Amino acid sequence: xxxxxxxxxxxxxxxxxxxxxxxxxxxxxxxxxTALSSxxxxxxxxxxxxxxxPTNFSPENDQTCKSSQKQESMKQVKIPKLSRFxxxxxxxxxxxxxxxxxxxxxxxxxxxxxQSALVIGDQTKAMEEQLKxxxxxxxxxxxxxxxxxxxxxxxxxxxVGESKQDKLIxxxxxxxVFNPTISEETFDKHLRITQRGxxxxxxxxxxxxxxxxxxxxxxxxxxNPQILNTIFLDLDETLVHASxxxxxxxxxxxxxxxxxxxxxxxxxxxxxxxYFLQELSQFYTVYIYTASSQQYASAIVNxxxxxxxxxxxxxxRTNCMETKNGFFIxxxxxxxxxxxxxxxxxxxxxxxFGLQIDNGIPILEWNDNVDDLELKYLLExxxxxxxxxNLREFNVAQMxxxxxxxxIIK
Length: 410
Hints:
Residues 1-77 are annotated as: Disordered. Residues 224-385 form the FCP1 homology domain. Essential component of the TIM23 complex, a complex that mediates the translocation of transit peptide-containing proteins across the mitochondrial inner membrane. Its main location: mitochondrion. The chain is of the alpha/beta class. The chain folds into two domains: 95-140; 152-404, Rossmann fold, CATH 3.40.50. The chain has helices at 2-5, 101-140, 157-160, 184-203, 210-216, 273-280, 294-304, 374-386, 391-399, 401-404, and strands spanning 15-18, 24-27, 230-233, 240-242, 251-256, 262-269, 285-289, 311-315, 321-322, 328-329, 343-347, 360-362. It has a five-stranded parallel beta sheet. Strands 4-6-5 form a three-stranded antiparallel beta sheet, with helices on one face.
């Protein structure tokens, strides 16, 4: 593949490795010995949507006025400057100007009062409009009331001031990582992995024949047929990470093999995974699409969603297309009655959804970082997308992956 992509191998070049779940993924040699955390998945207490209340603004009487500069001229009126917040008129006039000056002062005072009232009115009106939009949004989609906390997306960083601490806020592809805080090294690695996956998918990957697709065709069940949107989630390095060392894994689960025997698996679970699945299932029919075995995937899904309340089904390695290079491609065309305009796909490897790039969201890969917030902040983007008439067009406009194809990474 390096030859096709005109890339020179180097000691620190990215390569594919095989994880315990038999999933191929990009990894740098510097990352092979990453220490695994023993912390368990955070279970945040969802917070209610924060309301907004108009800022109270009341002008106060100011007894102190700045003295005006004395000017020497015939019949010059001496009027001290009025405080912006003062409602009193302080009039200093010559005896010959008593009939004219009060009228002038009245007009100036009225102008100040009108301007203050307009400012207050504009602020109150703007806040009332925002509250009205929130109320209308809830009326249109009552399920929004069920979300206990709505994460802040990248589009709101500047509003809440978080961009001040983000050195990458002006990067044209900063939106590809939803976490509000990320190191430049991690971001650069993610950008390179994503770009290489795009290059391979667009310039090297060839789709299977129609006959192959027909042979692979499957029909999927939906937990709630009334939910028309569909989302496919990768498993390894997206929701979980299989640990090579069982002693350092967060959770130990048993995998039931074909012959009835059991194999103990050590896994780390990405922070906010259960919360993510629970909230997401209100807006999408959720499926797991993995390049791992059915037994491995079922063992993990049974732990994440034992009652199968959130996950409607599992697609495994047998539902993938394997290339000559050993890559497993997840082609959504094998699913019958699937509307791609109502479908999204989340995977840490772009080539996995390489035949449906427009539907894909390349999530930051995860191994053991207990401070990771990617799923929490990705949730709002997916909720916003679910309200669009065409999810695929919305995703293309937001992700802008085609522009990354020829982007020069410094």
